[in-house]
Each structure stands twice: as structure tokens, then as C-alpha cells.
MICOS complex subunit MIC60 (Ixodes scapularis), 720 residues
Amino acid sequence: FIRDCCVRTQRLSLYPSWRPGTGTKMWRSTRKVYSRYSLLLSGNKQKSPSTVQSRPQSTSSSGGSGKAVAVTAGVAVVGVGATLAYAKFDPDFRQKAQSSVPYGEAFFNSILGPAEPSATSSKQQGRTAQLPPVDKIKEKALESSLLRKKPPIESSQQDTKSVLPPPPPITAPPSSPKEKTPSPRDLELEAQKQLRDIREKTERQNFALEQSLREAQAEAEKYTQDAVVSQLAAKEAMQLYVQKLYRALDDARDSEDQFMWDEALKAKESKLAAVEKANIKAAQAWKALENLQSVIRKGQENKETQANLSLGPAEHVANIARDQLRNAESESQSAKEATKIATDYKDMIEKARKHFQEEIEALLPDAKFGEQGQKLSEDELNLLVAHAHRRVELLTKALAKMQVTEQERAQMFQRQQERANRDLERQRAEIDATLEVKLENQKEAFEQELQQQLRRQVAAHTEHLKEALEDQRHDLDRAFGQAIERKIIEERSRHNAALAASVAKLQGMEGYLKARDELDRVSQQAKGLWLACQGLKQTLVYGHTSREGPQPLAQDVQPVREAAPMSPYVPLVLASIPEEALSRGVYPEVALKERFAHVEQVCRRVALVDERGGSLFRYLASYLQSLFIVYPKELPEEELLNEQRVNPEMWDTFDVLSRVRYWLLHEDLEQALRYATQLRGEPRQVARDWIREVRLHLEAKQAATALMAFAAATIAEDVQ
């Protein structure tokens, strides 16, 4: 109910000059609200005349007494009663009264009931249903009166105006007959046309919204159904895997039961495929559901389509699809947890078997289990039985302790659940109380808005009558002032002819001075930008002498941003600098070269270790290789001159490091980074941080270079 009240209140605020009886869709959509407030109007029918008559009383003298007010109220009540009595027997009079008085139809329907159809009323029903708002009539009348205040000059004086147009405030008198105020019929037709255009636009938007909702619903339902089926299939696959795994763990004893483990392995592969398919289907379903919710949200935000009846069912479909997806994912998650428990159980069993075997081997080091004909002595058997007895006793104590702990945790969880239920009940009571208060506030606001609309319509009608009288007075004043205006226009035309040349020269000089000032300002900003960028680039190369490690660029970027505040290019380039470079900072070029020496040394020592890692022997061999191999390697001259094609797959770690070292010595970080990315295996992991720092440094350096080029281009343009 609160949402309905809010929607109706927003519609009334969108149409301040709206009246019931216009036959629009907005009134039909609020039929229920009108039926409630028609009773309010009928209950206050004795108060409405006094409200209408309060405006003329406020303009009378302040010495009016209570007797005059009582007489006026009595006359108003008698007049309203006579009008209602006559309107009951004369449908034509009732139709005219309803069309002339704001909210008249609601007032008459609440007291006399619906009007009976008649020949005259049926002809006038279309016109009455589309009466224009009083505010639009007021605007039309003002527009026509303003047009009449500025009539065109005579044809004999148009040659003089062609030299230099006269000032806008003064116009020539009209040579045509006096214009007439548009008739109410013309205003009514114009209002009907505007209402039809608005209605057609609303219908088009609603049709497009319904089409989008149908497509989005069909897509969401299809993908949701596929996702639910996939989740259920994944759940069954996981349950089957758990069943096979428990069977293999409990029943498999020797090599003859290997088929049980094979079945468990096949079930695991099926489970993985089903889970992957379920994840893909779920992602598609959530994407389709988000698309449907986006269409619903756009329809609700649009004032023309927020009352569309298709939004409710679409939102219901979205909620159902969301619940189905969540339920299916919840069931699948439960199955995943059961699968994890089974896997953990298997790992624990294997770990326990291995641990028990190690204990037996430590207890009986000379016994060789698993060999044919191996027998244990009586002492060994007693020792083995005693150890098993102690192990069972320890496990029994641990189980008892675990049971007590779990019981305490269950009691604690139960207390927490009870406390959460109490908090939930308290919050539910608070929400109910808040909703009741909001409901009352919405009711009061709606009633106040309805009363304000009634008062606004009455005031607009009175204002329109005043403006009509004011227009007549302006017509008479304009008739007497036409002769004076004609003489003034002739004299001003001659004066403006001489003034125009001086104004044109002055405007040309001002334009040149402004252009020159703007060019100087841009040039000054470009020079400041170049200097700021030079400082930024200096920081990237050498860094600050006051600190070590990463150099934050925020204090260096700020002068660049302040140097060109009006340029749209500078913020775009500065935005390309990573946030990490601004806050944490980047290593200068000198520090990167020094850091590469350590990275190079470590990479040489682990050159033989690939992506899969290696044993201690491989690490030792790699270290020995770094001691005996010739490094750095000499690079081919053809490769340096770009006369030979290279194949990075044929390079080893020392070849790549030699090329990186060469280009670092030649001050080319970008080329060194290209070669460093060719590292593989453990050397790539060692150089990963250095590569990332070099990339961060190059991104900031690229932005500084682009800004310096922009500043240099601007300075060159100023010089030209």
C-alpha cells in the first residue's frame, strides 16, 4: 500500500494542472485511490465553497466581521445546493459545470452519482475529457498578448531597418488589423493534440518495455532451467563419487578389489566434468537474470513506464528464478561439502595407516611384514598386542574428549541461535512499527497533496481571468503608443547606423586582444608543463636523493596536473599512470639496473630449474653450471642490427640474461624488458618482481614522455 501511495503521489506531482474526468490512463490507474478520496470530498462538501470563496474575502478590507463571513458562507452553501439540484435534472448543465469547475466531475459524482449519458453530453464528452490544463491556457494567453505587444513596422520603413536592425526592446507598430486572442476551442484542440502525443509516446515506451521483458524472461527461464538441471546432475555425480569412495575405503582389502578404486576414479572424473558444466550454466543463468533485473529497473525508473502491469510479473519471475538458482546452488554446495568430507576422510585413513605402519616398524625393526613365511615370536606378538591396546585406549580417550567438546559446542550454538531468534523478533517488531508510521505519513502526505492540487486549480483559473483583463488593458495602451513608437524607431535607426561601424571596429580589436591573451596563456602553461614533466622524468631516471627504494610519484605528478588545468589531454595521460606508481612509487632507472645485478646472479644459479621445480641435485647442478659457464655471452652483430631473425625458443637462460644485460648497459629498458619476458622456469619466477617494477617504471615514463611531447608541440605552435 505504501508503494501505491508513493506512485500516486509522484504522478500528481508530475501533472500539477491535472483534473479528474480527462479520461487519461493516469486517472484510470488511480481509480482505487480516487474511490477512497471521493468519500473524503463528499464528507467535506460543506467546506469546499468556503475554501473557494476565501480568496476574494482576503482581498476585502480588514474590517470585515464574523457576520459577513457567515452570510457569505450561507450564500455559498445555498448556491452550491441549487447548482447540485439543477444539475441532477439537467445533464447538459451538469456537463458544463463539470468542465468549467476544477475537480467538478469528482465532486458531482461523489454526491449525485455517475452522470447519465445524453445526446448533448455524448457529443461533448471527447472535448471535455481532453480539456487543456489551466497552466497551458495561461501560457497561450501570455504568448498571444506578448506577440501583440511587438507588431511589425510598416513596409515603407523596412529599407531603413535593413541597414542596421533596431534594438530588440522597440518595434514598429502593426500594419495589419488587431490580433485576436485564441479561442478556447483552439486551445482545447491544441491541448488534445499534446495529450495524444504524450499518450502515444507512453504507449510506445510501454510496448518496447513489454517486448524487452518477454525476451529477457524467456532467456532467464531457459538458462535457469538449464542451470538447475546441471546443478542437480552435479549433485548426483558428487553423491555417486562419495558412495564409490566410501565403498572402496570400507570394502577394498587386497589387489582383487582394485575394481572398486577404478570405479571411484571414474566417478571422480564424471564429478569434475559435471561440476564444471554446472558452473558454466550457473554463470549464464546469473547473467540472464541480471539482464532481466536491469530491464525491470529501467522500467521502474522511467516515469512513463513505472506503472506498467508487466513489471510485477517480470519481477516475480526474476525472484522465482533467483530462488531456484540459490536452492540448486545450496544443494550442490551441500554435496560439495560431503565430497570434501569424504576426501578428507580418505586422506586421514591413508595418513593413519602410514603412521601406524611407521610405529610398527619402529617397534619391531627386525620384523619384515609382507614376506612369505614370516612369523613373529611370542615376545614380539605380546609387544604388538600391548602397543595396539595402548593405541586403542588413547583413541578411546580422544573420542570421549571429542564427544564432550562437540556437546559443549552444540549447546553454545543452541544458545547463539536462541539469542539470534530473539534479536530477529525484536527487529521484526521494530520494522512493523516503522512501516505503520510510514503508512500514516504517506496517507497524510497524499491528502495534503490532493488539497494542494485543488487549491492550485482554483488559483490558476482566477489568475487566467485576471490575465485576460490585463491583456485587454495592454491592447488599449498599445493603440495610443503606436505613434510615439514609430517616431522613436526612425530616430534610433539613424543613430544605430552610425554606431554600428564603431561597434564593429571595437569588437574586432577586442577579439584580437583576447585571442592573443589566450595564446600567451596557453604558451605559458605549456612551458610550465614541460618543466614539470622534465622533473618527473628526472625522478624516474635518478630518483630522489633523500630516500631509497620506490619513489612515490604523487608529489611529482601534482605540479604536472597544476601546470595545465584547462587542458583535457593532460588528465587523460595522468590517469594512465597506475595508482601503485603514485602511492607506493616506482624504482628509478638507476635502482632497477642495480637490482638487476642481484636478479641476474640468482637467475644464473637456478638456470636449470624448470616450471615444475627440481630436486636438490638439480639446484646443485645449476649452481655449478653458473660457476663454470662463460658469461655474459657475446651477441651476434646481425641480431643487434636487426638483420637476422631470432628464435627465442632456442635461447637458454644465459642467452636471455646476456641480452637483457646488454640493453640495460645501452639505456634501453623497454628492449631489456622484452628479452626478460622470455625467461622460463624458476628464473622467470626469480625475475618476476623485477619485470613488474620495470613495467611500472615504463608506464610512468611513457606518460611523462607523452606529456613532454604535448608541451613541446604546444610551444612550437606558439612560435609559429
About this structure: The two ends are 72 Å apart (CA to CA). Residues 20-130 form one domain.
